Amino acid sequence: MVLGRIVFAIGMMAFGVLSFVYADSVFGLGALPAWLPGHEVWAYLTGAVLGVFGACILLNAKTRAAAIAVGILLSLP
Fold it and tell me: So where are the chain's domains?
């Protein structure tokens, strides 16, 4: 069970890093319409959220709340 939590947390932190590197939305998250401004801001915000929640899951701090928040974020259209 611990190995699965660690792998999931590292994956979420990697998605957060990818959001910062490419300044684009993560695969799986709905892309914003082209006419809406602020694509980079959305990418940086979701990258920070995924990175922080991934670190919380990895460090076993507020794990349940962080996992629920990541699940909600990934299920948004």
Answer: 1-15+40-77
